[in-house]
Design brief:
It catalyses: 2 5-aminolevulinate = porphobilinogen + 2 H2O + H(+). This is Delta-aminolevulinic acid dehydratase. This protein is 39% helix and 18% strand. The model has no long low-confidence stretch (mean pLDDT 92). It is of the alpha/beta class and 324 residues long. The N and C termini lie far apart (41 Å). The radius of gyration is 20 Å and the shape is globular. The strands form two sheets. Strands 1, 2, 3, 4, 5, 8, 9, 10, 11 and 12 form a ten-stranded mixed β-sheet that branches. A two-stranded antiparallel sheet has the order 6-7.
Length: 324
């Protein structure tokens, strides 16, 4: 009787490691940080256990921990004290992300700082652009987004990560950066960003919930697959250097499609809802958090991600160190 003996290669831990196809590395992770315009402030986000709002005077303590764990990159999100209808604090040279970026780069110049480039945290209406007659105006928003990107690059951001999903946003930002002399600053585009229900805890953290309507006129329909390829192709043609797929877990098929079709680094955003569900289940003792998280992260890598933005970055780095 001829039997395929697949178990031969699973018999011992050493054999399994020899034939393992996909690996996680600390360098894969980008850690999100929420910075606020207050003093001596560290407050846990209610819907995201272990994730904090941090004031600038406490930020370097967090960055020191990030660096000590072997992480190489963070992405900064700002939560301003004041908002207006055009999100002017987003492109203020003394805005919260700009100040945080300068602080981090002065003390840790080798750490890669990614700046989230959007308006939703800064607008009084919570949308990602200029609103007129209840509708987000695409082309008027582009000017402000480019202005925001340039101000972040001036502050020292290594990578600009625009998340707004306006048509032509990569081209506008690339032109703005180039004209300002930042031709070497890459763009990590939120190229494939779905109108997902998994963003709820993030909106709690960033104080960015829309005050009316939703974002379905600019974020993608979760039912669509081919649209993702069109979006990714447009962004690459406009000058994107990285392509983000967001969310991660419910869109692993999309991630593989993007990876198979485009020769650019693929970034997965393991979003807040995915994080919070695991945290809640772990706190109730229903799952093994470490095993679930590492399995989830390896699935994202296996689907084609080169990098992963994840709130689990610090925990994952610790667990990988334990396994070395």
């Amino acid at each position: 009787m001829n039997i395929d003996r697949h178990r031969r290669l699973r018999r011992t831990s050493a054999l399994r490691e020899m034939v393992r196809e996909t690996f996680l590395h600390k360098e894969d992770f980008i850690y999100p940080i929420f910075v606020v315009e207050q003093e001596n402030y560290k407050h846990e986000v209610p819907s995201m256990p272990g994730v904090y709002h941090l004031s600038l005077d406490l930020l370097l303590e967090e960055i020191q921990e990030v660096v000590s764990l072997g992480l190489k990159s963070v992405i900064l999100f700002g939560v301003p004290n004041e908002k207006d209808d055009v999100g002017s604090c987003a492109y203020d040279e003394n805005g919260i992300v700009q100040k945080a970026t300068r602080l981090v780069k002065q003390q840790y110049p080798e750490l890669v700082v990614v700046a989230d480039t959007c308006l939703c945290q800064y607008t009084s209406h919570g949308h990602c652009g200029v609103v007129e007659d209840g509708y987000v105006q695409n082309d008027k928003s582009l000017k402000l987004l480019a202005k925001t990107a340039v101000s972040q690059a001036k502050a020292g951001a290594d990578i600009i990560a625009p998340s707004n999903m306006m048509d032509g946003f990569v081209a506008a930002i690339r032109q703005g950066l180039d004209e300002a002399g930042f031709v070497d600053v890459p763009i990590m585009s939120y190229a494939v960003k779905y109108a997902s229900a998994f963003y709820g805890p993030f909106r709690d953290a960033a104080h960015s919930t829309p005050q009316f309507g939703d974002r379905k006129t600019y974020q993608m329909d979760p039912a669509n697959r081919l649209e993702a390829l069109r979006e990714a192709e447009s962004d690459l043609n406009e000058g994107a250097d990285f392509l983000i797929v967001k969310p991660a877990l419910s869109y692993l098929d999309i991630m593989r499609d993007v990876k198979n079709n485009f020769n650019a680094p693929i970034v997965a955003y393991n979003v807040s809802g995915e994080y919070s569900m695991i945290k809640a289940a772990a706190q109730n003792g229903w799952i093994s958090e470490k095993e679930i998280v590492l399995e989830k992260l390896i699935s994202i890598k296996r689907a084609g991600a080169d990098l992963i933005i994840t709130y689990f970055a610090k925990d994952a780095a610790r667990w990988l160190s334990e396994n070395e």
